[in-house]
Amino acid sequence: MATESSESEEEGKIRGGNDKLIVDEDLREMGKNAAWSVSSCKPGNGVNTLRDDNLETYWQSDGLQPHLINIQFQKKVRLQLVALYVDFKLDESYTPSKISVRAGDGFHNLKEVKSVELVKPCGWVCVSLSGTDPRETFVNTFMLQIAMLSNHLNGRDTHIRQIKVYGPRPNPIPRQPFQFTSTEFLTYSTLR
Q1: How many CA atoms lie within 13 A of 191 on its CB side?
Q2: Which of 13, 36, 73, 125 could form a disulfide linkage to 8, CB 3.0–4.6 angstroms apart?
């Protein structure tokens, strides 16, 4: 899994963040396969700024909380990790303090998967979608919704600079419990 942000002794609280996003090789970025939408935005700070790989730009909500980011997939996908780039030093009251991650088949049946409280985050914050059971390592879903429930310093609008969504990399050889890594083994891994 990715390097987790430093979690405090209280469950569900994340402090700090990481300057660089480091993700295991067995995860792949799934956001490019999705349709992204937001509940509201200020002109010039729309949904495209969440995915432009530029930490200087940001999505800014406009209106009442909760502020929503919707990520919809054409087919059911396995998701394991959500990484958000937020910066309390730059954004202050625009920085989210409580986030809820919800999953489901569509808007009609979303269920909360994870609720996280952020304490003055600066950098990449990784939210694992794994359940409490060790066998629950991912969420199988058509839609993911990230809801910003409250902000630091009782702010109204939210700034999110980047979001990445990761799922497990599929096994390149179906019905085989292990993966070959060398090219030579891959060449002779199947019968004709």
Answers
A1: 1
A2: 13
